[in-house]
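[Meeting: bench + compute handoff]

Bench side (C.D.) handed over the final construct sequence. Compute side (W.E.) agreed to return the predicted structure before the next meeting so the bench team could plan truncations. Sequence as handed over:
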Amino acid sequence: MEERGRVIGIEDGHLVVSLVRGEVCGTKADCSGCANTVTCRATNLCGAAIGDYVELESKPWLLSKGVLLIYGMPLAAMIVGFVLGNALAGEIAAFFVGMGFLGASWGFLRYLGKGRKIGNFIPMAVRKFDSLEETGTGYKETDSPELPVS
């Protein structure tokens, strides 16, 4: 997946990039109330600075891996808890054991996320552009937020 946007800041060694919503967001009817731009953090692989336009790249399998990890693991833990609780003490215990396993899986995911033990899901800035025309996205100066004055 590739997106292009403007670097509006640097936080903790990562770029803060303003992206113009495109095809991913859908039409205004599908996406009521959303802003025209969205910001994200990215790893700086191209030496970009504030004000530069960059191309962000993310591996397609990262999204699938993240969704499976965030939704699949708690669901599997909850089902195992329900089955185990039902086998040990009946339906009421199944509910509480299932909810306990669900909570434990969320805590485990939070622990893994804090230590960055589950991988890097941050997009990478792989190419820098010097001008608006070079990006080819129709990104206009009025679409981006104001840059801080130094």
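W.E. noted at the follow-up: Strands lie at 2-11, 14-20, 37-44, 53-57, 124-129. C.D. will use this when planning the next construct.
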